[in-house]
Amino acid sequence: MVCYDSGMSEGQHIDSEDAERPGVLAVKTENNHFIVTVRWVDGEKSELHFPTRGFPVVTPDTGDPLGRLTGEQALEIIRRVAAGSMRSEFSWAKHIKRE
Length: 99
Prior knowledge:
By secondary structure, the protein is of the alpha+beta class. The protein contains 2 helices and 6 strands; from the N terminus they run βαβββββα. The strands form 2 sheets. It has a 4-stranded antiparallel sheet, covered by helices on one side. A two-stranded antiparallel ribbon has the order 5-6. The protein is about 15% helix and about 35% strand. The radius of gyration is 14 Å and the shape is globular. It has helices at about 15-20, 70-80, and strands at about 1-5, 25-30, 35-40, 45-50, 55-60, 65-70.
């Protein structure tokens, strides 16, 4: 298993103020999946699991295919938007470039 974090050096601890701040708290890989711990802007904390090799993105209502994200693209999206989003309003579909 490989573990990453949100920019901290190895062995550094999150102090209580940083632990309450919204954004990506930790990233690790396990069984070819990213496991991302996120604190959303509304204070909700959750884990997102997705394949490191990527996944298809579909329209939430109809299931129609929209495109595909690589695992690295998905990780970058979460890092960019988590601190300013609520879990209930997050959707991968919003981040697919339409051609």
